[in-house]
Design a protein that fits this description.
Elements: H1 3-19, E1 26-29, E2 38-43, E3 53-58, H2 74-80, H3 82-86, H4 93-105, E4 113-117, E5 122-126, H5 133-138, H6 143-159, E6 165-168, E7 171-174, H7 180-197, H8 204-223, E8 227-229, E9 238-240, E10 250-252, E11 259-261, H9 264-271, H10 280-292, H11 299-326, H12 337-348, H13 354-363
Antiparallel strand pairs: 1-2, 2-3, 3-5, 4-5, 6-7, 8-11, 9-10
């Protein structure tokens, strides 16, 4: 962003805060993530308020490609760009507001939105604190109750009726299906970016085989798209709130890209966590807890979908991390790659994925998976 635009943006932020009663708050920048958003913690002086803190979200408009219109054709989505193909919200604040309100209506702990200007890309949110799952576990907390609560949160979420359009606080947002095109976009990031990251060479036949192997998995993913999918449900986006009850003990962040998806997707995000190692024992306990809460599901069929869509999700993340390293100059994401290969090998232990395993063994051998 140019200096002039930065100055104008800062003036717009200050005016927004003043208009909503936060003009005198002390602003503390917070660490960023892989998105185009930034965050600050607002501290109100006790003399002008109650001393509480809040979160200030800044998502500058027009820095991302457009989100997907609900009725867009595949060709129209391709013309609009990656966000439309993948059915991402392009950081839109109205998506965050609508999703947050709906999640809170289900009894879940999304941040309360205290003020928002979606057109300007600004919002003030409830501060859920700093007790991210990942940080607590790093500090020695017992992970079992945290993961149990996270599974219970998914059970609550997956029991809720899913509207076609989410509406809250004057904002509306369509809950689009994580369809075959979005899933294809997800796995094709791998073959686009991994050859730029590691010594991988793929010809036209290799890519045709790739497409043939994933097509039936995409079809299962789209056919099973029946629940609200947070889409980024992992230990860096979950906050422990032990003073609340039940599934509300799990504070939710970064859910604005929500879609209607297969219930296995968020389970994979949680149990195939790219940023921290989830042991096979913890994964098994999480799956058992989820399936015990869903007696309507066929265990064998669901686990087959979990391994297949989990493999797709892991491949997607590998491609994204390759892109972050090679295009965006963020080398720290390379540190997460070995963990993802371990998860993928565990998924490939399912005999139904023997074809995919053989493709990877042939084209991305063990010495490249580092």
């Amino acid at each position: 962003m140019s200096p002039d635009r930065e100055t104008a943006r800062e003036a717009a932020k200050a005016a927004f805060l003043a208009a909503h009663g936060f003009g005198d708050a002390r602003r503390q920048p917070l660490g960023g993530d892989a998105s185009t958003r930034s965050y600050e913690r607002l501290h109100r002086a006790k003399s002008s308020g109650d001393g509480e803190s809040f979160i200030f979200m800044d998502q500058p408009p027009s820095v991302e490609t457009a989100p997907c219109p609900p009725d867009a054709t595949p060709a129209e989505r391709a013309a609009l760009g990656y966000n439309a193909l993948a059915r991402l919200a392009a950081g839109r604040v109205d998506a965050f507001v609508a999703c947050a309100g709906w999640l809170r209506e289900q009894g879940l702990s999304a941040p309360q939105v205290l003020a928002a200007d979606p057109a300007a890309g600004l919002a003030v949110l409830e501060d859920l604190g700093d007790d991210l799952y990942a940080r607590l576990i790093e500090a020695g907390a017992d992970e079992a109750p945290l993961y149990d609560a996270a599974i219970d949160g998914l059970l609550t979420l997956h029991a809720a009726p899913t509207p076609g359009v989410l509406a809250y606080g004057g904002s509306t947002w369509p809950l689009l299906t994580y369809d075959g095109l979005a899933l294809k976009t997800a796995h094709d990031i791998f073959v686009e970016w991994m050859p730029r990251f590691r010594p991988v060479t793929l010809d036209a036949k290799d890519l045709a085989d790739w497409e043939a192997l994933w097509a039936p998995i995409r079809a299962r993913g789209e056919a099973g798209a029946t629940v609200f999918c947070h889409r980024d449900y992992h230990a860096e986006n979950l906050i422990w709130l032990p003073d609340r009850q039940g599934a509300a003990r799990v504070g939710l962040l970064d859910f604005q890209d929500a879609v209607l998806a297969h219930p296995a997707w968020d389970l994979s995000m949680l149990l195939h966590d790219a940023r921290r190692t989830v042991s096979p024992q913890r994964e098994a306990a999480g799956l058992d807890r989820y399936l015990a809460g869903r007696p309507d599901l066929d265990r064998v069929a669901f686990l087959a979908d979990y391994h297949a869509l989990g493999a797709l999700n892991i491949v997607r993340i590998l491609g994204i991390f390759a892109r972050l390293v090679t295009r965006d100059g963020k080398p720290r994401y390379a540190d997460f790659v070995p963990r993802l290969w371990t998860y993928l090998d565990a998924c490939f232990a399912n005999p139904a994925l023997a074809g995919l395993k053989a493709w990877f063994d042939a084209h991305v051998p063990a010495e490249v998976r580092r």
